[in-house]
Amino acid sequence: MYARIALGNVRRSIKDFGIYFLTLVLGVAVYYAFNSVTQQSAVLSLSGSMSTIVRELGAIIRAVSVFVAVLLTFLVLFGNRFLIRRRKREFAIYLTLGMDRRHVSGIVAMESLVVGAGALVVGLAVGVLLSQALLYATARLFNTHVTGFGLMFSSQACVYTVVSFAIIFLVVGVLNVLEVSRFKLIDLMNADRKGEKSLVRNLPLSVALFVVSLVLIGVAYHELRVNGMYVIDWRFNLATALVTVGTFLLFFSVSGFLLRLGQSARGFYLHGLNMFTLRQLSSRVNSVWVSISIVCAALFLAITSTCGGFALVSSINQSVSAITHYDVSVAMYPQATDDASASVETTQGASGSEMEKLLKASVPDWDSLVADSARIDLYTDSSMRLSLAALRGDTDVEVPDSFTKYTNSLGKVPIHVTSLSQYNAILALRGEKPVVLKANEALVTTDMTNMVGFWQRVAVKSDGFDFLGTTMRLRARRTTMEYSNAVNTSVGTIVVPDGVLESKRAQLESFSNYLNVKARDSRAEARLYKEVARAHQPGLLFEAQSKSSAKEEAVGLTAIIGYLALYIGFVLFVSCAAILAIQQLSDVAESAPRYRVLFDLGAERGMVNHAILMQIATYFLFPLVVALAHSYVALGVLGSVIKTLGVLDFLRPLGITMAIVLVLYGGYFLLTYGMARGVLGEKARRRE
Amino acid sequence: METVLQVHNVQKYYGSKGRGMGTAMTKALDGVSFDVRTGEFIAIMGTSGSGKSTLLNCISTIDRPTSGQIVVDGRDVTGMRQKDLSRFRRERLGFVFQDSNLLDTLTGEENIALALTINRVSPKEIPGRVEQVAAMLDVADVLKKYPYQMSGGQRQRIACARAIVTRPAIVLADEPTGALDSKNSRLLLGSLADLNRQGATILMVTHDSYAASWSGRVLFIKDGRIFNELSRGDESRQQFFQKIMDVVSFMGGEAADVR
């Protein structure tokens, strides 16, 4: 009997449940699809390291899924609360008819169960399709193919999804039952008549608060832009606090402000249903400003993480092609050993050429694997006579903005030294022409793109600098140079003629030594990479970075960041859109009597539809615009941090993010508008 | 005087039509005819179920009669298309409902102005016209208030102001005193009579003899037909009330309605 009522309710109010159901289905599908990533390694033909990456990715996604599950719980709770609130009258009828509270709770629990189970089944079906798409995406990303039939069903992800959602529905079901059993009959009967008070807001106060909120946000933006977030100090925390308070205040006061603004523009206010729309917006604000603020925060998180994630991905992809200048590059370090009985007294003082010899000795078939190689030895002056400040001298060329924030004393930024012959050997390995220097000339180089311009300006203005007692002229002929496959390591390295270096050698100490190798072919490259990793010499440490290993690592990192950005972004966008949609639809339903009055007064369908559109658009757009503004500032700051490490292009990632917003958020918007029109259509027909 | 409303042999049937056993049919209106002239204050009386609400719905274009003609301001509304109807309704008709039906989100002033903005009246004209009708109905002091801050009588007078501010051909009032206590009823009826003296044509549907006694002419409806008609002429309101009471008790002894 009660089951029949519950089923009947769900069937009858399919429209009310519609958006809620759709959101659940999307939630389940995405949850399943991303959790199935772990098992992609089973059907993809992947190399060892790649399948490790895929498994790692799976583990990270699983961890993030806990956060996603909590988020979805809140979403489901929110949706349920609205659905239940709208049905207070119905519950009142059950209770007046003498139905037990227990049974009413039973009906509610049953409904949740039906909707939840339905969503789970449909969601899993959609999820299987979605995971298929993800599978092929991964395959493309890792440049591999799907083995076997390629149809993947991850029972593990399925169980995980079912258990997670069962817990979510259980929690929500219990809370629903609690809410229903707390209902008082008198409140249920009067449910429709409540909420008429507190419609009026002190308008001047709203306007004042609105201005205050803008000022707060403006100050926070300024703080962030000026100070950035190189250091998370009290100023950064203050800015965060200001922007948070400002945002809440903004949503608290904006409708009052808009109303006041509208009222002062008579021609606008007294046109069509504008007056009604503005009043309608401001009458809702008391009940929605908190949730709108939270939606805005979630959207901010979604935009920033999605856009930031994609930007990182493209930045990594760019730098992977930028960093792999050499097939294999081996960093050679002297290593302190605590093995006292070892025959090595100190390899600490081992020179570059000695280490190179030892390396070659420990790799079998070195000569058959290597076509060509070039070593570079970098030196430094520990007494800091060679620093950024020393080289700049009195030229007053400004150091790149992001750089000054990252360190406070340019005198403490060391400059390294290497010899012209080694520099030219590396150029030869790269297939480039050698550089010629006069005896009193020093060439400055860097591998940080944002430092290139600085050095070129310094070289033009400088009349020379003191190189450990000898005045040398600074040249910037071929300034961009990477000495190994490691990324962004050199703020500035000066190349001096061999004779000059030799004469000052005693004042310098060894800083780092790299051996860059051109392999005979790709198989030799892989072999060499493996052998170097295995190579062992007492007191020495070899670290190899090969072109292909760097690429694999980058692809792996790309996949992890990209998937996480998609996953979190998708769930957050859908959650926000669903909250707004449910809120707006229940708002339209609650305001039905008001729309009836409009029809009574002879308002046309078109006019009323326009009013509805304006309301829904305001609710959807406003938090999005504010979130976009916040994200713009945050990404700008974040971008300048990352820029110190490399280039970051936000245009394309922003495009992708906006496309996601357009499809998901826009889809929910259109759906909401369509359904709201449907609700109104019934009202209108009843009058016409 | 000009005829503003012509109701000609209007029938309204509910239920299945021509489906074999046509016994389920209800005749809500069964050949009703009458005219209303410009400047009249006419009351239509009847018990619940008499068909008076159906008649009002047909005149107000909310419902369509099964047959017959309703001509408002020279135009037959029974054949009009939906789109023309809402335009016709907002331009030529004014409504006063039992529950004032004001928008709770708008102030009194804005509620009145809304009827004008829906009619696309120039914003420059609106404040003046609102003040004018507010003065006529003695609600100038509650214009800035919200409906929930007003008394029932004030709300209903704001609703009247909203109905006449568009200068409709005819004001249709559906049990306008139904939700008011006797003092506020008297005030509202006085206002309606005032409006009528200043030229408004009013058609009021009521089951209350006292309310009807404020009008100039009363039509009695029973079982979907016009049962009787009374004109006040030069009589006092009290005398007219007595005559109405006589008809009412003759119609079916509705002693419960006697005040």
UniProtKB/TrEMBL annotation, chain A:
Q: How does it sit in the membrane?
A: Multi-pass membrane protein
Any transmembrane segments, and where? 17-34, 59-83, 104-137, 157-178, 199-222, 234-259, 288-313, 555-582, 616-642, 654-676
Pfam family name, one:
FtsX
Cited InterPro entries = ABC-4_Integral_Memb_Prot, ABC3_permease_C, ABC_permease_BceB-typ
Biological process according to GO: transmembrane transport
One GO cellular component this record assigns the protein to is:
plasma membrane
Question: Where in the cell is the protein located?
Answer: Cell membrane
Task: List residues of the ABC3 transporter permease C-terminal domain.
Answer: 64-182
Record's keyword terms, sorted: Cell membrane, Membrane, Transmembrane, Transmembrane helix
Q: What is the name listed in the Swiss-Prot or TrEMBL entry for this protein? A: ABC transporter permease
TrEMBL record, chain B:
Q: Secretion signal: which residues?
A: none
Pfam families noted in UniProt = ABC_tran
Domain spans labelled ABC transporter: 5-248
Q: Which GO terms describe its molecular function?
A: ATP binding; ATP hydrolysis activity; transmembrane transporter activity
This protein's GO cellular component annotations are:
membrane protein complex
- Keywords assigned by UniProt? ATP-binding, Nucleotide-binding, Transport
Among InterPro entries, the record links this protein to: AAA+_ATPase, ABC_transporter-like_ATP-bd, MacB-like_ATP-bd, P-loop_NTPase
Membership in a protein family: Belongs to the ABC transporter superfamily.
The protein's matches in PANTHER family, at most eight in alphabetical order, are given as: ALPHA-D-RIBOSE 1-METHYLPHOSPHONATE 5-TRIPHOSPHATE SYNTHASE SUBUNIT PHNL, LIPOPROTEIN-RELEASING SYSTEM ATP-BINDING PROTEIN LOLD
- Please identify the protein, giving its name as recorded: ABC transporter ATP-binding protein
